[in-house]
Amino acid sequence: MNPWILAIRPRTLPAAIGPLLVGNILALQSEQFTWLIACTSMLCAILLQIAVNLANDYFDFKSGIDTEERIGPVRVTQGGLLPPNKVRNAIFISLALALLVGSYLIYHGGWPIAFLAAASILGALGYSGGPYPLASHGLGEVAAFIFFGLVAVVGSYYLQAGDTSTAAWILGSAIGFLNAAIMLVNNTRDMQTDIKAGKHTLAAHIGEGQARLLYQALVFLPFALIIGGFILGFLPGLPVLLAGVSLILARKLNSEFSHTSGEALNPLLGNTAKLTMIFSGLFSIGLVFV
């Protein structure tokens, strides 16, 4: 496989696509809605996700976290498939393209979007790099919840509607939990090698047993949130019903995580990302028909 494909990790891209899809479709009935904004915001999110993936690859290699003992998918810098300087340059190219694409969103959405754009770029670099890497201090799941949940859904809805809504905050939280679950699987898989390298992820702090309980909460809470949103009158019934179908997959993944560890978690990582996309896609389909 082309090393650049390995570097951008296509299996993780649903983490960026899902929340943007929901945020935009939620605002579909807004008089201001445009498909140009929808497509531009989604492209910007994908570029930021690619930048995060490249930065994680580069900074984990530079800090000595990624070694030959790594049990996850191949990292192109540590594996010698791409030289570090090329990966570093690709990080900044991805961020520059995201900013270029996002400049139209900033022009359209004003200072709130400019603030979110700046925070997102800092988050992309600060996840694995900088003086206080979020991933090395147990904040990776929190960052995923905020940026690939709340910021993505509420921000994209704001771009289209010019305001926020309770529904957007509920859905941002729901998808944020699912994306945090992706991060938790990744960090639980790498727990032993991370501890050796001095990387103190949330999984390393709480241990594998508690990580399994947390995963259970992260994949089931989204369904509780949307059902609660429906009962309180903030979300329509059809999208909630359709998204509820993905609970079947959530239960299956939780069962697998309860007795799986180490390298065997690799398929679960990709399948948790699929859960995010399926949940988001089904909810969006429901929104189109209400």
UniProtKB/TrEMBL annotation:
<feature type="transmembrane region" description="Helical">
    <location>
        <begin position="166"/>
        <end position="186"/>
    </location>
</feature>
<dbReference type="GO" id="GO:0005886">
    <property type="term" value="C:plasma membrane"/>
</dbReference>
<dbReference type="Pfam" id="PF01040">
    <property type="entry name" value="UbiA"/>
</dbReference>
<dbReference type="GO" id="GO:0042371">
    <property type="term" value="P:vitamin K biosynthetic process"/>
</dbReference>
<feature type="transmembrane region" description="Helical">
    <location>
        <begin position="35"/>
        <end position="55"/>
    </location>
</feature>
<dbReference type="InterPro" id="IPR044878">
    <property type="entry name" value="UbiA_sf"/>
</dbReference>
<dbReference type="InterPro" id="IPR004657">
    <property type="entry name" value="MenA"/>
</dbReference>
<keyword id="KW-1003">Cell membrane</keyword>
<feature type="transmembrane region" description="Helical">
    <location>
        <begin position="12"/>
        <end position="29"/>
    </location>
</feature>
<feature type="transmembrane region" description="Helical">
    <location>
        <begin position="218"/>
        <end position="248"/>
    </location>
</feature>
<keyword id="KW-0474">Menaquinone biosynthesis</keyword>
<feature type="transmembrane region" description="Helical">
    <location>
        <begin position="113"/>
        <end position="130"/>
    </location>
</feature>
<keyword id="KW-1133">Transmembrane helix</keyword>
<keyword id="KW-0812">Transmembrane</keyword>
<dbReference type="GO" id="GO:0009234">
    <property type="term" value="P:menaquinone biosynthetic process"/>
</dbReference>
<feature type="transmembrane region" description="Helical">
    <location>
        <begin position="90"/>
        <end position="107"/>
    </location>
</feature>
<comment type="pathway">
    <text>Quinol/quinone metabolism; menaquinone biosynthesis; menaquinol from 1,4-dihydroxy-2-naphthoate: step 1/2.</text>
</comment>
<dbReference type="InterPro" id="IPR000537">
    <property type="entry name" value="UbiA_prenyltransferase"/>
</dbReference>
<keyword id="KW-0808">Transferase</keyword>
<feature type="transmembrane region" description="Helical">
    <location>
        <begin position="268"/>
        <end position="289"/>
    </location>
</feature>
<keyword id="KW-0472">Membrane</keyword>
<dbReference type="GO" id="GO:0046428">
    <property type="term" value="F:1,4-dihydroxy-2-naphthoate polyprenyltransferase activity"/>
</dbReference>
<feature type="transmembrane region" description="Helical">
    <location>
        <begin position="142"/>
        <end position="160"/>
    </location>
</feature>
<protein>
    <recommendedName>
        <fullName>1,4-dihydroxy-2-naphthoate octaprenyltransferase</fullName>
        <ecNumber>2.5.1.74</ecNumber>
    </recommendedName>
</protein>
<comment type="function">
    <text>Conversion of 1,4-dihydroxy-2-naphthoate (DHNA) to demethylmenaquinone (DMK).</text>
</comment>
<keyword id="KW-0997">Cell inner membrane</keyword>
<dbReference type="InterPro" id="IPR026046">
    <property type="entry name" value="UBIAD1"/>
</dbReference>
<comment type="similarity">
    <text>Belongs to the MenA family. Type 1 subfamily.</text>
</comment>
